[in-house]
Specification:
It contains 28 helices and 6 strands. The longest helix is centred in the middle third of the chain and has 22 residues.
């Protein structure tokens, strides 16, 4: 078992929501370059392009993720983050349930319970030939999918090389889907089904002991599907067969052991070709197939491509992955160091590689160097900040962690950076002083923002922080009547019991624009606001006034029967 990620599928579902989680399950098998260690998980997930994902696990925040896909760039825990989390859980395959990030681990037990062994293989081994044949016949008759797989295996075992090749080519013939240099994306799903049939044929070849043929067939199939993928404007329906073809190619290579140098040439050409952006093939996975000679040749080819076009990101990434596959940490560090990002993100990559190689001192030195470099911009990569602070806390350097958290809060104030500052200051026993300084800084910045409608960034953070501290009245004053609707609603809900008049004004203001909508979501929100309006009137002792408001609203919106039903369901 590998390093335990420190979260569960439930944690991923909570972070992403049910829709993104369900979509992420479909991508879990496509994750490549999975790297687990030091409280972080990094990998790549193909989509319209290859997206880089990083998950972090902390006791305070649980599992968080960042992805450079459009949805992830907005700060969401996207389907690609889910896919990487699921891939990490499946790789480590714990025999006991993983604790979520905010649960306290149970004390170590004196002796672990031995893992339960699968009883089926020993039982099958005890059967004689006739019994096995009878069992296969019975099961294949009961399970049509199993019978189809067995039939395919039988056909492939009897067919000669030419027949198998023609069958794969026939399944992947694009002429029914592509014409005039264009493939209809709406037909991509049908072509993908045929491509999966080709994958099944290639798997059967490997199972029949003809792995060398499967190697050649998989390479040709990847080229063909890649061409159709390009013509179909990157249709995502074709990604699963691409992933499956890469998997069967790797399996076939491990069985057939093709010559390292031709394999290296193919791998580099494939990864730098049109389908390279969406393929899960990773040189690290091929290190045992390539061996030292193949890795050296692949690195030479990737370096040639990089030197001919230093701006080619695919060549840069491939060269880096090959250096990692070779285990040449110093060369990999040098490659990263040749193009350092100003926010310290590259310093963090270097630090992680060194840390993984057991060079913790060098790793921390590089990370600190990144903080100093990014400090000039006053905007270091948040992952670098988290990594350094985690290392400081691990070493008992709480004052140093607090200094980093303080700088981060001052350069990029947010509710998250405030909470991190609070945790660090409490570890040092000086939160009272830090808290006062932080609030004073936010108030000063908010004051400089002026009184234009709509809160400025500092004022928004101040409201969020005061709410997080439970200072609802102070947050209401800080909002000064200019908060956005989301914060207004939060404020109203939090002060409804002790400031019902102010809360009532907020609810009535938010109710007005919803009356013009015809969406179900708006109808449910109207009902939710009316329940809150009723609660305010009850606190104020003006229940009759609410009855009049409700009657007037129902009369005004009586031509919306669905809204009327929703109001009835809510006792309104």
């Amino acid at each position: 078992m590998g390093i335990r990620p420190g979260f569960t599928e439930g944690d991923l579902r909570n972070a992403a929501g049910p829709v993104s989680f369900a979509r992420g399950e479909d991508y879990a098998g496509a994750v490549s370059g999975l790297d687990i260690g030091g409280g972080t998980i990094r990998a790549a997930v193909p989509g319209r392009e290859t997206y880089r994902v990083e998950l972090a696990v902390t006791r305070q925040a649980g599992v968080t993720g960042s992805c450079d896909c459009p949805y992830g760039a907005e700060g969401h825990f996207c389907k690609h983050c889910v896919a990487v989390g699921l891939a990490a859980l499946r790789r480590t395959a714990p025999s006991v349930p993983e604790p979520s990030a905010d649960e306290v681990p149970a004390p170590p037990r004196a002796a672990e319970r031995p893992a339960r062994q699968d009883p089926v293989p020993p039982w099958l081994g005890s059967l004689d030939r006739d019994a096995l044949l009878a069992l296969l016949g019975e099961e294949s008759a009961a399970v049509p999918a199993l019978r189809e797989r067995l039939l395919l295996r039988a056909e492939v075992a009897r067919a000669d090389r030419t027949a198998v090749r023609d069958r794969v080519k026939g399944l992947l013939d694009p002429r029914a889907f592509a014409e005039g240099g264009y493939a209809d994306p709406d037909e991509a799903e049908a072509y993908a089904r045929q491509a999966e049939e080709a994958v099944a044929v290639l798997r059967a070849l490997v199972g029949a002991g003809r792995a060398a043929e499967a190697v050649d067939g998989a390479r040709w199939a990847l080229w063909r599907v890649g061409e159709v993928h390009r013509l179909a404007d990157g249709a995502e329906e074709l990604l699963p067969p691409v992933h499956d073809l890469v998997a069967v190619h790797l399996r076939a290579c491990r069985a057939a052991r093709p010559e390292p140098e031709p394999t290296a040439r193919w791998l580099v050409g494939h990864l730098l070709g049109p389908v390279g952006e969406v393929t899960p093939a990773d040189p690290v996975d091929y290190h045992d197939v390539l061996g030292p000679a193949g890795l050296t040749r692949a690195l030479e080819l990737a370096t040639e491509a990089w030197r001919s076009d230093p701006a080619d990101k695919a060549a840069v990434r491939l060269r880096e992955r090959l250096l990692k596959a070779r285990g040449d940490v110093d060369a990999l560090v040098a490659a990263y160091a040749a193009d350092l990002a100003p926010d310290g993100a590259t310093h963090l990559r270097i630090a992680r590689e060194l840390d993984e190689a057991g060079r913790a001192g060098d790793a921390l030195e590089w990370a600190e160097r990144g903080l100093r470099a990014a400090g000039k911009l006053r905007d270091p990569d948040h992952r670098l900040v988290e990594w350094v602070c985690e290392r400081y806390a691990r070493a008992g350097r709480f004052a140093d962690a607090l200094a980093v958290r303080r700088d981060r809060f001052r350069s990029r104030a947010s509710l998250e950076s405030y909470r991190s500052l609070r945790s660090a200051a409490r570890a040092c026993g000086c939160w009272a002083a830090e808290r006062e300084a932080a609030l004073e800084s936010l108030r000063a910045d908010a004051g400089r923002g002026g009184q234009a409608p709509g809160l400025g960034p500092a004022a928004r953070v101040l409201v969020d922080v005061l709410l997080d501290e439970g200072e609802v009245d102070a947050a209401w004053e800080a909002a000064a009547g200019h908060a956005d609707d989301r914060r207004l609603l939060t404020l109203a809900d939090r002060m409804r019991d002790h400031r019902p008049a102010d809360a009532l004004g907020v609810y009535l203001r938010l109710l007005e624009p919803l009356k013009r909508s015809t969406r179900d979501q708006a109808y449910h929100e109207i009902a939710r606001l009316l329940r809150s309006v009723r609660a305010c009137h009850e606190r104020l002792g003006t229940a009759e006034e609410f009855s009049g408001r409700l009657a007037a609203l129902r009369a005004e919106l009586k031509r919306k029967p669905k809204l009327m039903r929703i109001l009835d369901q809510n006792g309104l």
